[in-house]
Amino acid sequence: MDSSRISIKIAAIAESATLKVDAKAKALQAAGRPVISYAAGEPDFATPEHIVEAAVVAARDPKNHRYTPAIGLPELREAIVAKTKQDSGTEYTAAQVVVTNGGKQAVYQAFQVLLNPGDEVILPSPYWTTYPEAIALADGVTVEVFAGSDQNYKVTVAQLEAARTPKTKVLLFCSPSNPTGSVYSRSEVEAIGRWAHEHGIWIISDEIYQNLTYDGVKAVSVTEAVPEMIDTTILVNGVAKSYAMTGWRLGWMVGPMDAMKAAGNLQSHLSSNVSNISQRAAIAALTGPQDEVLAMRESFDRRRKLAVAELNKIPGWVAPMPEGAFYVYSDVSGLLGREWGGKVINTSLELCDYILDTAEVALVPGEAFGPSGYVRMSYALGDGPLLEGIQRLQKLFAGN
Q1: pTM of the predicted model, to two decimals?
Q2: Which residues of the chain have pLDDT under 50?
Q3: 139: which of 82, 99, 315, 318 is 20 to 30 A away, CA to CA?
Q4: Domains recognised in the chain with CATH numbers
Q5: CA distance 286 to 288
Q6: pLDDT of residue 21
């Protein structure tokens, strides 16, 4: 790429690894290959009908054909306030809510609002592939802190403290986690929150998978566990995952008034208001019946148990049981440094390429989320394809 033509900052951005793998899988499927893809992090269910109907009605109402407040419809922001009180245990006002084009925009704006050039962000690894790019776009510096499968992919306060420097301004916190599905306990959240409060560190808490937890596990918010953090925490959320609304592009951010005012100002120039049709649909999602949401979660729970049980039958493949989201993050280091398909495979990136070429199964390599040696599998697809793809893996690595 000619650096004289394109901004250095923008040219340095890497394409989303998860979307790249998913696009490759879909291209192979379109060419007639029977590829089973575990790459995309989106439910395979249709958006619940009452939400779709609310959007249809909204589309016919001329008032939704016009500009509305950049920070979101008042009715939706009130619904978000109610949800945040119920699920995050924290009270806000509608003025402290900014509705965004998906949770991804909320993450981007949170870093833009908080960071100055050179500010450091502690990023627990494995992490969602977009976080380091959003940090770089805000001129921040990513400081990775890795927790492996032996820690159930959860960092400790001791690790965070070891990474802290005078330049540390923000901790990115994601529970339930993408890509690992790990959920921090209340005591773990409280310990991290108190550490951040003691050192004056902001927390950007991505709660997009908040309502997708299993076995009675609750995703506890930082502001609920440590109320003193309310003035230095930005909560990020949205309807994409829990309501099967990834394509509707509706997320939000909630936080202290000064930060939300700044985010609103940014958004007024960046994108203005989110589609009013999507906003009306989100109101229906948050305030309407939750039966289908619970049914989807039950399906994810069943698939989670199936995937983990079957993956762990593969010699050298270690798949911890996730407590949230809809991903299994497997440790495949036991398969590396060995000969597969006539050549020695040393990285999870090489392993995923081999699996796609040989077994026609698409997985996302650990390099997209941090260190090599791991793979992410989304189990947000039908039960049949879920099992068939894993059986292909079992056959591929059988007897070796």
Answers
A1: 0.95
A2: none
A3: 99
A4: 8-46+292-396 (3.90.1150.10), 49-287 (3.40.640.10)
A5: 6
A6: 78
